[in-house]
Amino acid sequence: MKSIRDRMKENSPMVLLTLLSIVQALALELLWSQVLESAFLFDMSWTALLAWIQVAANFTGIVVIWIVYASIAMRFRWVPSMSDSVYPFIIGVLEFILVETLDPEYMGWWFFCLGLIFGLMTWVNHMKMRRARLDGENDEIFAHLEPATVRDFYPAFISITGFFMAGSYLAISGDRGIVALIAVAAALAILLRQMLVAARIWDITVGD
């Protein structure tokens, strides 16, 4: 049994990244198709401005998901569970919905979907880190990382709550003015911050 567990730990990063890369490639292709098919994006209008920020947020979100998954798979070793193979499909479906709602008309639903993706990625990341911490092969890395506390999740809770609140307001009010612009720009800023956080954690764990 130990040899099977060792084989799974050795092969799971490659399998996981291959699966995720396929899902991410499909998401990028769908995003590109959506941009080409959305004629309003190429108008000089307020609606086009909102939509282009959404496009930037979608692209950034896809990149962040890849960075988080790839960094975990390359740095840590753990015995994979069946859910490790299921999560990329769930995340992929949510990404496709996020791209399909790339229209200021559906901005409320776009925020709801973004909140679901953010929450799921927070959960998946935490579960993988917990299992990795229990594996002795990762002791050298976790010597530089303190166990996560509730306080560490405050930014994620605040972001997810903000996404759902923004989605509820925009869906009910139909506002597509300055409030919508601030909300979409804030979403993009949060995703960019997540990219910086992932880069900082990477530097800590692979630094000399």
Helices and strands in order:
Elements: H1 2-37, H2 46-75, H3 82-100, H4 107-133, H5 139-142, H6 154-173, H7 178-206
Task: Please tell me about this protein's structure.
Helices cover 79% and strands 0% of the residues. The chain is an all-alpha fold and 208 residues long. It has one domain. It is elongated, with a radius of gyration of 19 Å.
Notable characteristics:
mainly alpha; 7 helices
**Any low-confidence stretches, pLDDT <50, length ≥5?**
none
Label the structural class: mainly alpha
Q: What is the count of β-strands? A: 0
How much is the average pLDDT?
84
Task: Describe the global form.
Answer: elongated
Oligomer: single chain
Total number of domains: 1
What is the strand content?
under 5%
The largest pleated sheet is described as: none
